[in-house]
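Dear colleague,

Thank you for sharing your sequence with our group. We've completed the structure prediction you requested, and as agreed, I am returning the results in plain text so they can be pasted directly into your records. Please verify that the sequence below matches your submission; if there's any discrepancy, let me know and we will rerun it promptly.
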Amino acid sequence: MSDVFILPLPPERRHTLHFLAEIRSFAPVFLDTEVDMTAIARHRAAARDNDQRYSVVSYILYAATRALLAHPEANAAIRGRLRPKLARYQTVNGKLALDRTIGGQRVVLSAVLPDLHRASLAQVQALVEHYRDGDPAEQPEFAGVRLLHKLPAPIGRALFRLGVRPLHRRAAAFGTFAVSSLGHRPVDGFYSVGGTTITIGLGQIADRPVVRDGQLAVAATMRLSLTFDHRVIDGALAADVLADLKGRLETFPAAAGLPRPVGVDVARDPLPLDGDAAA
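Please find the predicted structure tokens below.
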């Protein structure tokens, strides 16, 4: 008697297969750094004292949006091989990977958060909570995914390509950057290809030794990765984006244009952006 069970692929995984087939043309290169999350921890604590809770992912989405606005060449996408074309987007849409269960299957679902360049931190958090707490079997944003699960695989694959390949649709379908987090598990580094020119990966936040002013100290740090599509940008620019993001997180909210929370002595960003009103 065989001890191997061979079963049909659950239809709930079809959208993942279609996605992975579509990104085979990517040329991913991986960077990482370590971020001191002390400023974020202080801001979160001050916000909780004012009955507002923010997830780490929301800070990443917010700060990464501003990093891409500062480096618009990375807020782009490419299409085509013989005659490649490049799209640079005026909007910044973040794609968030979600660990969800649908049809009894644990799968990755992706939610595109549009126009993040106009969103306050509180508005970003509200979007994150909407997808985190909702039922993907009922949410209208995942109707297309549910349709892919029902269609025969070849038809579903063709429809998926029609929906995501045109550059004018890419920002709405895939976002202009992606964020994935495994920080809720004992994972230090996470490197992912999210179908966008820039994909940001989050590891766990843990107390680690750091050097401050020549002295050894302990700080809450997080491994932050950045995967970039080498067809669109080069390593130097990708490193600039990662360094910008790191700086915005480590000096939060001074580099984010947010008002000062109670108990945190920081200055406002001298160049506030649209949508940065008080949360």
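Summary note from our side: The chain has one domain: 11-250.

Kind regards,
the structure core
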